[in-house]
């Protein structure tokens, strides 16, 4: 059984807000989404930030590569103006900021570990270790009874049955490192095209799910993944008719850019 939300806002707020920003998370909330996918990369000082591209310039006003900058540098850079003037001043968030925003608002996270080339192991290890630490901190708040009274909305969310994040990655090495650093966190293998040896790949990293490009999924493959006992998640499904079709194939969940067309309660 798929224990997570079934409709997930891609990169925070899909196509309605600048990707991978706190503004995107707020936009998703405004559309009723309490489930989000976002991308996490290490800055040059090893601190994870929420960004999709290794190269600056597309969504972030800057030149160069993410590993060339500290997290503090990146967190001063504009990540909203490219989308629209209304979002100018929105900056690159740290993973810590996004994680705690989501926990505070009861938003479930599919954390995509997105290493810059050469940083696969470090990114997987860091993201998993921090995620486990922050979850433990929140749980300790619950155990100590500090939820609410001490201004710990994260602990309150955890106490209310919020499902723990699911870590996913296209990088096998990142998933292996995540497994070693925090074996108790759920992992998923991400594939554009699902390779023939997907069973072995999922087994090697102890994955609970396979995430893939819906455009390359077939009903036969979907059936095989489900028959093998794995969760099946697709990206990025933007047409309601297609969403209904792949659900019939057994797809458990998907992310979408069209949070305006495909609501969190889509059927
Ligand atoms: O995690 C699913 C999806 O986000 C993977 O592709 O390029 O949007 O990160 P991308
Ligand atoms: Mg992604």
TrEMBL record:
Give the top-rank taxon of the lineage listed in the UniProt record for this protein. Bacteria
Q: Which GO terms describe its biological process?
A: lipid metabolic process
Q: What class of enzyme is it?
A: hydrolase
- The yes or no answer to whether the keyword tRNA-binding is present is no
Which N-terminal stretch is annotated as signal sequence?
A: none
**The enzyme's E.C. designation:** 3.1.4.46
Name of the featured protein = Glycerophosphodiester phosphodiesterase
Protein keywords: Hydrolase
Q: Name the Gene Ontology molecular function terms of this record.
A: glycerophosphodiester phosphodiesterase activity
Q: Give residue ranges for domain GP-PDE.
A: 5-266
